[in-house]
Queue: 2 jobs
Job 1
Amino acid sequence: MPELRRDPIIGRWVIIASERGKRPYDFVKKKDETKGGYCPLCPGHENTTPPEVLVYGRPSHDPNGPEWQLRVVPNKFPALIIEGELDKRGEGIYDKMNGIGAHEVIIETPRHYETLSSMAVEQLVLVFRAYKDRLIDLARDSRFKYIIVFKNFGKAAGASLEHSHSQLIALPIVPQIIQEELNGCQRYFEYKERCVFCDIIRQERSQQTRLVDENRDFITICPFAPRSPFEMWVLPKRHQSRFISMDDAHLHQFAMLFSSTMKRLDRVLPNIPYNFMLHTAPLRDSHLEHYHWHIEIMPKVSTVAGFEWGTGFHINTVPPEEAATILKSS
């Protein structure tokens, strides 16, 4: 029988309809045809991107030169621009402001065909260190309230370039989804005086039914009310509300578990497009007792259609307990 499940954080309901389900290999996508040839993100083409704002691994002091391990550059076609003032204003009942923000591309590796699942842990450490460094730097701009870090992998997930990269967008407002998450966490904390994410981690480690992987400091789970088959969350075991709170030792532990998680996904669903999003505390908040940073990984295995858009419900054909068992054994 189908089952309705309520997300304990924001109260979102999902439908677990396993009768409509598919076996993991039914989700496997045909690999995107690689175009090869010219790539603006590959070494030697640095002059085709805007000037870098961060670089790791270049032995020389030549800015925008070809030798590097990771680069961060402004997006050539930004969703928001950094120059100007917000100029908040009203037009009758409608509110608007200028499109001020920052939009950057994290070029995760100089190797064109490398992916997060094939990348060495040391390279992943650089990726996550770049996130941290850019969050810290952009937080100095008082116009920005939140920075979303995300990755689109595969055409179906919105990737327009093959070369492995992720993006960040600094926003002058806190996104509604994040605000709903913060509000849900606050309500839970006011009632129980505990972080809901910490309680989730304790229960999942105890039950072991939705736990995918863990190491000393981090854990990967399939959430109780997943929106997508094989959705996963990666979280610190110790309470932290801000991603930038991690020191080098924790960055390495996080990279190790994230690498293991992505390898599991790749073995179960080869070539699957996916998105991931970093959820962290807003820039103007320091330590929040009620909130817990995490990364959400969403494989692109289903289509959002009329029912989902009309109701806000997601239909998931693979129960998270089954997904976690498959991923854990991969």
Note: The mean pLDDT is 91.
Job 2
Amino acid sequence: MNGVNKTCYITLYGKSYVSKKGIILKDKKAEEIWAKEGFELKGKSKSKWLAYFMGMRSAVFDAWVKDKINEHKNAVVIHIGCGMDSRVLRVGTHTHQWYDIDFSEVINERKLHYTESENYKMLSGDARNPEWLSKIPSQKTAIVIVEGISMYLKTEKILELITALNAYFEQVFLMMDCYTKLSAKISKYKNPINDVGVTTVYGTDDPKDFETDEFKFIKEHNMTPDYLINDLKGVEKHIFKLLYGGRISKKMYRLFEYASVLLG
């Protein structure tokens, strides 16, 4: 795998780590894949603090997806940049059609660990060129997860993706995590993703950068809510809160929710 694709193993390690400890996120699939495929991580990539953060971010996304699929029984779920993530197992497809999207190299490896079903498919595709949308049967509503990839995309490419989604579906609900501009600047020199060869990333300070006439910012979510931080104990809890749970963290990393505007 190239550098960007290898970053999916940093998040996989984090989820495997917290799952093994029995905190934050239950993810037996991450444990299983990491045991088989994991490689030696360097520097901050193997930090327990980052692992706690990766687990919490995933848990917040999971909770949002669960809420949305309960509200929209016939929606299709699309996870763009799925990597090795097992959200489809953690959340469950229920009666929803679920599509995991990533580069062909990632999907080929993913298929060694996951099995498609009537409700679950894996598609090769690039967020920068959403031609893969044509492989998804048309539905009125889409629940879209964009986790851990926006920082690799220029603003115009994200807007192109959003425009394509809105043209294909009548209604789109989307959650996306983003670096701030400060974080993107610092990341060139100091970021766990550097350990797998990635140095070019992008950030935004304004969630409205990704709005269009038909697609609006709804609200910002907390990636490290207290109920998850409380899974940590003693000194670890206080250190983590200083590193990832306060104003300093918000200056570096944000989580935005969007929805299409129903016209008519």
Note: Residues 1-5, 191-198 have pLDDT under 50 and may be disordered.
